[in-house]
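Practice problem: Binding-protein-dependent transport systems inner membrane component
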Amino acid sequence: MFVKKRAIVLNAVYHFFVSIFGLFMLYPIIWMFFASFKNNHEIFSLTASLIPKTFRFENYVNGWNGFGTLTFGHFIENSLIVSIISTIGAVASSALVAYGLARIKFKGKKFWFAVMLITMMLPYQVLMVPQFVLFHRLGWVNTYLPIIVPQFLGQPFFIFLMIQFIQGIPAELDQSAKIDGCNRFSIFFRIILPLMRPAIITSTIFSFCWRWDDFFAALLYLNQPRLYTVPLALRMFSDPAGSSDWGAMMAMGTISLLPLIMVFIFFQKYLVEGIATTGLKG
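Answer key — C-alpha cells:
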C-alpha cells in the first residue's frame, strides 16, 4: 500500500515538473500568438500582459497582403518548394549512403566513415565562404539551387542516424535475400528500406523543419523578394530605418508555425520510435 502511494506521489511530482518545463518552453509561442492580436504600442508597452485588451484581426489581413504584389502565401509556397524538394533529396541520398557504410565491405570504409563524422562536426560558418564562391562561379546565386542541390549529396546527421538503425537489422535477412537471387540494390529497396521507416520518417521531420526555418542560407543566396522564403519574408516586416509592423510579423509568424505543428502532430509516433531505435536519445 505504501509503495503504491509512493509511486502515485512520484508520478504526480514528475508530471507537475514536466508540465512546468513544457509551459516554460511553449511560453514564447503563446506570447507570439496573443501578440499577433495587439497593435505595436500594446505589444511593447504591455509585454507582461498576455491577453490583449482587444483582439485585432487586421494584423492577419495586413500580414497576408504581404508587400506590393507578393502576398505572404507566395512566400509560403516558396518555402514549401524548397523544403519538400530538399527533404526528398536529403533523406533519399542519406539512406543510400547509410546502407553502403552499414552493410557493404569496401576498401577505406572506416576512413570515409571518419570523414563523414568530421563533416558533421564542421560549423556552417567554416563552409559558408568556399561554398558561396563555388556557387557564385556556377551562376547559382539568386536561385534555389545552392540550397537544394547540396541536400542531394547526403547529410551526415541523417547518415549517422540511419547507420545506427540499419546495424540493428539482422544481417541474416541480407543473406536470405542473396540466396533468393537479390543483388545489393534489390536487398536495399525490398528488404532494408521498408524496415527503415521509423528512421526515414524521423529524418524527414528533422529535414523539413530545418529547411523551413533556414534563414541564413536564404539570406546568403536569395536577393530578389519574389524568391524569398518565409524567414526572409518575416524580416521584411521589420524596418530599422522606419516603422515596423510588429503585429503583422507576429501574425504571420504564427501562421508559419502551422506546417511544423501539423508535421509534428501527424508523425509524432514515428519521431519517438525513430529516435528510440537509433539510440539518439538526449
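Discussion: The chain has a mean pLDDT of 87. Students who identified this feature from the C-alpha cells alone can consider the problem solved.
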